[in-house]
Automatic annotation (TrEMBL):
Domain Isochorismatase-like per the UniProt entry, residue ranges: 31-224
Any GO MF annotation of the entry: nicotinamidase activity
Keywords associated with the record: Hydrolase, Metal-binding, Pyridine nucleotide biosynthesis, Signal
Signal peptide positions (record): 1-22
GO biological process, one term: pyridine nucleotide biosynthetic process
EC supergroup of this enzyme: hydrolase
Alphabetical list of Pfam families matching this protein: Isochorismatase (PF00857)
Gene: pncA
UniProt source species: Neptunomonas phycophila
Name of this chain's protein: Nicotinamidase
InterPro entries in the cross-refs: Isochorismatase-like_dom, Isochorismatase-like_sf, Isochorismatase_Nicotinamidase, TAT_signal
Metabolic or biological pathway: Cofactor biosynthesis; nicotinate biosynthesis; nicotinate from nicotinamide: step 1/1
Documented EC number(s): 3.5.1.19
Gene3D superfamilies, A to Z: Isochorismatase-like (3.40.50.850)
Length: 233
């Protein structure tokens, strides 16, 4: 954050003096809230529960009316997906393996297409959401990011959707901070969007220090860390 008089330059985007002084952000018609993987699998009772994961739901529901544009993502794996430990003879969940595209963390079976585990959390109340992006549906490629799959080459189409609709700023919320939120945030920044991650609208897995590493990588990529209290309609 470079402060020069009354204007701050954040990753190329100028915040107006009003936004700076009032310490608030007002999403405009060129902003979108991206709600990442708030699915039964990632909350307590699911197959890959994130501690306190359900706490993001009321925060996101409260934020939603401030946004003209809302996109939802769903982790959406095939049975026997390459990211499941159970797909390998000798692997246990949270170990890693080497795949064509690099090191892959192996997870418990989770978010299998069409199951109740993969459904959005019931209490999520986003009637105005325009698009649901599903990802991780290629058997041999994982996809934490909502923009590019783990081979870092295969696009999901989300960048085209947002750019074609004139979206320039994205606000991220959901699960998990250190995996799908972080990868989505970094890809969004690299794709030229102004990116805000709403910290209290996210929860992390924190596997071997992954949460601190993710914030570090997001900050280096120019992602802006904010709290939901900064957002006003
Ligand atoms: C996620 C691990 C595996 C996530 C998805 O949504 O953060 N994490 N699949
Ligand atoms: Zn997954």
């Amino acid at each position: 954050l470079l402060l020069s008089g009354t204007t701050a330059i954040v990753a190329g985007a100028a915040l107006t003096p009003r936004q700076l002084l009032a310490d608030t952000l007002s999403p405009d018609t060129n902003s979108a809230l991206i709600v990442i993987d708030v699915q039964n699998c990632f909350v307590p009772g699911g197959t890959l529960p994130v501690a306190d994961g359900k706490a993001v739901v009321p925060v996101i529901n409260h934020l939603a009316p401030a946004f003209d544009n809302i996109v939802i993502t769903q982790d959406w794996h095939t049975p026997e997906h390459a990211s499941f430990a159970s797909s390998y003879d000798t692997k246990k969940p949270f170990e890693t393996t080497e795949l064509d595209y690099g090191t892959q963390v192996l997870w418990p079976d989770h978010c299998v297409q069409g199951t109740d585990d993969a459904a959005l959390v019931d209490e999520l109340d986003l009637p105005t959401a325009e698009l649901i992006v599903r990802k991780g549906y290629h058997q041999h490629i994982d996809s934490y990011s909502a923009f590019f799959e783990a081979d870092r080459k295969t696009p999901t189409g989300l960048q085209g959707y947002l750019k074609e609709r004139g979206i320039t700023s994205v606000y991220l919320a959901g699960l998990a901070t250190d995996f799908c939120v972080a990868w989505t945030a970094i890809d969004a920044a690299e794709s030229g969007f102004t990116v805000y991650v709403i910290e209290d609208a996210c929860r992390g897995i924190d596997l071997n220090g992954s949460l601190a590493k993710a914030w570090d990588a997001m900050t280096k990529a120019g992602v802006i860390r904010i709290q939901s209290s900064s957002i006003t309609a």
